[in-house]
Amino acid sequence: MKTKLLTFFIGAVALLSTASAQNVTQLVPGKDFPAEIENPECLGINKEPAHATLMPYASLDEALKAKRHKSSYCHVLNGMWKFNWVAWPNQRPVDFYKTDYDVSGWKEIPVPSNWQVLGYGTPYYRNIGYTFKIDFPHVMSEPSKNYTAYEERNPVGSYRRDFDVPADWNGRRVFITFDGVDAAFFIWVNGQKVGYSTNSRNAAEFDLTKYVKPGKNMVAVEVYRYCSGSYLEDQDMWRLSGIFRNVTLWSAPQTHVRDFFVQTDLDKDYKNSELSVSAKVKNYGSQPSQAQKLQASLYNGSQPVEGATAVTNIPALKPGQEAIVALKFTVNNPEKWSAETPKLYTTVLTLQGGKGTNETLSSRTGFRKIEIKGRQFQVNGTPIKLKGVNRHEHWSTVGHAITEEQMIRDLEVIKQGNCNHVRTCHYSDDPRWYELCDEWGIWLVAEANAECHGYDGKLDEEPRMKAAIIDRNVANTENFKNHPSVIIWSLGNEYGRVGSNFVSAMNVVKSIDPTRFVHYERFGMGKNNPSDFDGRMYGTPSDFAWVAQNKELTKPFYICEFAHAMFNSMGSLDEYSKVFDNNPEILGGAIWEYQDQALWNKRNPEHPILAYGGGFGEFPNDHYFIHKGVVAWDRKTIKPHYPEMKKAFQWIDTELVEPSSGTIKIRNKFQFISLDGFDASWTLTENGKEIDKGVLKLPRI
Q1: 233 lies in the same domain as 319
Q2: Considering 151, 494, 585, 618, which one is annotated as catalytic?
Q3: Residue closest to 57 by CA, chosen among 70, 71, 69, 67
Q4: 561 assigned to active site
Q5: Which of 350, 393, 616, 622 is least enclosed by beta carbons within 10 angstroms?
Q6: Nearest to 247 by CA among 227, 268, 220, 225
Q7: What is the pTM of this model?
């Protein structure tokens, strides 16, 4: 078996060499490849500003269902696209975007997907370090000959498909949104260049109105594996490429609510709430708009909440002009949102003028208030504990192009393991994940797409990277600010110390969202830490207890990574959990990490393997370091880590304190619910055989 597998890898490398071998090792930017991909200050061309995840709806009924992709004004462009892959940018079909360029002979690829998973080029697993030569800000420099990137210098995927614009969208604005493209891409529509984007894990949106026509249209997308932004994407995971999240075409009126922020603020008794909305309304048209009104109304299911509505005026706007308006109203004693009681209402916005409603949007709303009092982090006046996992967006069958069904399976496994918390390591996730966490009840630490572990400490003060670091944090905050599950913003991971770039990013995040707090582990602890939390990774339970008891520290202590689940480890988790429970200064933390990130290698159909680092013959790689999940790659195969976590993290503790009388101490560690709704029973076994059993009648706990 070993001989057969080795032969396959050698054959694969030889084929790649034949396909991409060339004498040219130094390509000329602007001639052999676009200069933009090596410009760290070029973050995009013609992109729309970052905003909350939103969608216009054709009716109140659609808005209350809040299914963005089911809107009458949304067409999902997922499916089969024509596709071409090359190993070097100068081999790409430069004119493929032209309407008369024939792509009928090209193969097809599903969107979303990662092209390496489907056999195009080589996947890499790396923990720390880049798969191209470090030569900031360049990504085209020649690496050592043993690097896979020596032959696959910067692969390019060229995508094309036709799409229809409905006739009833005539006179409206037409936008296209890419939720995730790794790593940088250019877009053309009907042969005309529209724009460029970097940042692989936040929405890239373009206004296509002047490029499209009713009926049949054509879109072309050119994706580069590496760009200068790749220096910010050195996360511990498989390095994969392509259009790996949803692509949507959608329509809005010429005067459009392009962004809004719904905030709730409970009173001092945490009973009644003020709900406020700030909205940005822009006239995208070429003619002045009429004066309109913006109304915000709250619904509980399909029923309007009595008195929970407000209206404000939108002035007439000149072409291109934007107005920022605010609305607020009081909601009497709404049900409160928490990870244990994830009650959601719906805020509906309607833009009204002329003959009626011109635009309708909506957002799920959870009533909760976040505070830090002393060294305690509180929600709705109650100190909470975070016991959770770091979760990568990865499934071994599809790579990073995960489905909603797979997200839901992750939530099932995470919740059944008694976790109440997920850190989105180390990037913004698919927008649907945040919606599901709102529904299921998960405390989220929402992390921005920023990590340069393999170039640690080099870019946190680099002036050419300042705009990119801020931009990625702005996108993270703007995209997901309306989600009650998000309780903390994280600026990134393993990047550098208290660098001015991250301090600037933190200040911008706080200016956008004053309702939440900001974490960045590399800021450390103590008086030189500008963030809202003291933090450190890893350490023993006694280390963390010492931090909690250190009177010189003044902030809540959050542990973004602990209990590294490598191989047969994580056996002391119960000790960590007790330290969390017994020290109010500790907010809690997230195990590294949730799942084993294996990836199926099926390139030899007769011998598919579940690959770890090196399993595709790639170099460099970090071998089996990826084998550190609490759960196995399939979320089914039981590892000893999972029952260990489920027991250590359980929110009801029982202790037999007096065996002779059968006295049991029961502790409720839930923060928002009593044990009234739980059934309790007991069994007595002798040598594994049940000899007695009964039912416990619980008092109110």
Answers
A1: no
A2: 494
A3: 71
A4: yes
A5: 622
A6: 220
A7: 0.95
